[in-house]
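Quick one:
INPUT:
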């Protein structure tokens, strides 16, 4: 009733492959990822492969078209904004420079205390007595 000790496999020991199988396995070249994918495609039916190819192709074309559109739209937006807003910015800068030059000229003509004063109801110069 005792089982022969040769038939009992201990769980901690690894099963070794015969040397002939190990040698055959080592002689095979490693598969690349693409070769493995191509090999896997053979297990799917032709309609599923065609559908997958069509979905991939349409997705690739859609992403490519969206990228081209985004590039063109951003180029149009930024060049148009430069053309439209650059004159406004230059004109504002020129007006500020003219105002600053007038202020400096008034300060030189009237003295250091009068350059920043403007004629208005609250900013009238004091009347000498």
């Amino acid at each position: 009733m005792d089982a022969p000790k040769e038939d009992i496999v201990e769980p901690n020991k690894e099963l070794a492959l015969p040397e002939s199988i190990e040698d055959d396995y080592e002689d095979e070249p490693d598969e690349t990822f693409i070769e493995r994918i191509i090999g896997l495609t053979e297990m799917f039916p032709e309609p599923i492969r065609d559908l997958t190819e069509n979905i991939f192709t349409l997705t690739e074309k859609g992403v490519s078209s969206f990228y081209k559109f985004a590039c063109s739209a951003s180029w149009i937006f930024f060049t148009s904004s430069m053309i439209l807003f650059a004159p406004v910015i230059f004109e504002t800068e020129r007006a500020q420079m003219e105002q600053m030059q007038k202020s400096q000229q008034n300060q030189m003509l009237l003295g250091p205390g009068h350059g920043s004063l403007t004629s208005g109801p609250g900013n009238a110069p004091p009347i000498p007595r």
